[in-house]
Amino acid sequence: MSALVNTGIDVLGDIPSGSHFCNFYDTKQDLLDTLVPYFKAGLENKEFCIWVVSTVGLITVNEAKTALGKVVPDFDRHLSDGNIEILNEFEWYLEENYFSIEKVLEAWDIKLKQALALGYEAMRVSGDTFWLSKKYWENFYAYEQKVTDFVAGLPMTIMCTYPLAKSEATDILDVVNAHQFTIASRQGEREVIESPEFIQAKAEIKRLDEELKRFKERAPGHSLILRYGVAILSVITMHIIAIGMKVEIGLQSTPVVTLFLCAIMFSAWFGGLGPGLLAIAFSLLSFKYYFASPVYSFGVDSREIPRLLIFTLSALIIGSLSAAQRSVTESLRKARDVLSGTVQQLKRTNAALQIKIAEHKQAEEKFQLAEMELRLVNDTIPALVWTAQPDGSVDFINQRYRDFTGLPLDEVRNWRWISVIHPDDQRKVNGKWRTALATGEPLETEARVRRGNGDYHWFLIYSVPLHNESGKIVKWFGSTTDITERKQSEEELRLTYQFLTYHVENTPLAVIEFDKDLFIKRWSKRAEEIFGWKSSEALGKNVYDSDFPIIYKEDIPKVDIINEQLMKGMVNRNLGLNRNNTKDGTIIYCEWYNSVLRDEQGNVITILSLVHNITERKITEETLNQSYEEIRRLNGHLQKIREDERKLIAREIHDELGQQLTAIKMDVVWIDKKIPEESTAIKSKLKNIIGLLDGSNQSVRRILSELRPVILDEHGLLAAIEWLARQFTETTGIPVKFTTTEKNFKVSEQIANCIFRIYQEAFTNITRYAQAKNVSSSMWIMEENINLIIEDDGIGFDTASLQNKKSFGILGMKERVHSLDGKFELDSSHGKGSKIMVSLPYGV
After folding, report:
1. What DSSP element (H or E) covers 228?
2. What is the pLDDT of residues 26-82, one digit of tens each?
3. CA-based angle 363:366:370, to the nearest 5?
4. The model's pTM
5. Cα separations in angstroms, 547 against 2, 510, 533, 537, 607
6. Which pLDDT band, with edges at 50, 70 and 90, does 692 fall under?
7. Strand (E) or helix (H) holding 274
8. Bridge partners, 475 (sequence order)
């Protein structure tokens, strides 16, 4: 029997060496799933492998190498060592487009002999037939039939692969008949049409048949000593019987001959030809010594020679026939056993075939059902479906086509289907259709198709050709899909786009659109005017491109943060002020209004930026800010000058006017004392003068306190504030609660003057407007800042109204604080009083 080889194919397993089988496949993956493990197993079994692919097939030579390289370790080594060859049909089957059966079979024989000479265990082959066309089919079928006989008994396995898509029913039957068994691979599923066990059974039957024909000697059923011993005993037994019969010497010896022939026949039947010959030899000796003249002598009477020859020939014939009968009987017994097993296998195979027939019948029914469903789908699909002959003449239209156009099939045959195309579109469609017919390329176009009621709808017309194995077009398949709504939407979008484009190009803002990677997709005319780069120069640029330095270098980190926030969805829009470069290198200031458009999954699609050039405004603001700072510094300087002048005036009034008034009062009092009491008129005048002098002194003291209270210079800020609060309470009757955690305030004269004047102005405003019943104030130092709060429980006011009033008192407080780099806040509302909060740097 032939040795078994591992195919590597899961559904096939081991098969006898010398097998020739085929594989029908549906897809490229089906083919790879069968061939890759097939050759992998061959390389692992130290078999020489040949894989013939088709240049027009589903797998190229490179793809075959790549597929094997993924599963075979050291495949490159196998390839370089020549353990496998991957060829195409022109390198193996065809010579100048001619297929020769003899040359191909001779080539297989040469390859096999070379492989065996190089030490390979066997040869494994697969050839794809995708290249096979009708003109080669008859010769190739004859070749397939000869391959089965050629490979039988050789250490060689051949698998031929056939594409189902190119195989007709009759072709499939021919292929199956030409091979020992068949595998079908479809959509990842594989099945064996005829099992390897059945092949083994057939091979065994063939072997037994040859064995019976040649009458080969079978191994005996008994031991050698027993077989030859039985032969000797059988002759001795017949000799004893003959002596016992007291056959007279010289008389007719036919009974004796019969006895010895029986011994010879039994010996040959029991022991085979060898024991039969031994029985013949002993029988001849006995016959000559006892029963032929001269008796008891080994001499031979010439008259006895014919009898001896006849006996010898008869013995040989009977012995041979007996031995042959035994051999035939043994062979028939073994054949019966094998045939019994084969019959059982055939019964199982028949049952399996019955199942397959039932499955095929079900498949046929399913196919018919699928065909009906396909027809139903064709008639109900929302498209006009049609087919045409290679020349373009329509031979099928679905129900949807008939309902839509109101035309039967007869009226759309022979190019009449063009009659339903809008006249303005007929030339375009006709031209493309003729081009498709000439080139064999698919057709795709859009056109208006007339309904049965005369209305036109927009349709997408698409048609593809079906080619046979030789590349010739055998059918056109077409579908015409209604795209009226899409065309209307496109028109609306076009008008909308024109509308938006008009506004984009005419807005005073630059419109710039970026993709998710910050490459520019839109660059409006206003952007050209602002930045200097033309649209052709800007489109496709990235905001970080070195040859497009639109962002000022020092502002790049800030822009990075903005972009990161937009990309991560932290914000959907923002407003930023950036410095930008123009094409000529000028630095400008722009406000960027950035918005992000995302898809349903949250992925960034577009970033739209509206850019406003505010360079002039920025320069104006900087000029105003500079002027404001200068005014603030001037105001601070004026405040200092004013305080210095007040201090000087107060000192001069105190030192000069106060002393002069005191001296005048002293002189008037002296005069009053010197004038007699009788001079009442003079006394009265002097008292009036003294009273006026006292009033003048009080006025001087009041003026001095307003100009520069002496207590501020002599006792410090806290004492001055407490004195000011007592004065406020004495004047208005409103109690003031002043708290502080500080005991010794040592501040600069500027800070002291600022805080004193704030308290002074605050008390004045409360007196005039607040109608308060209580006033509270606190002052403390925290984190190098002096903080104070002054609040009342008066009627309050709307702070927004201060914008429309000349509130110089509050404005003065604010300016005093700002001139010292402090913070001033005012909080008030109707019915809730007012609160002033000030924070000044302690070290000023």
Report:
1. helix 224-244
2. 888 999 999 999 999 999 999 999 999 998 888 989 999 999 999 998 899 999 999
3. 135
4. 0.32
5. 78, 21, 11, 10, 22
6. confident
7. helix 273-291
8. 466
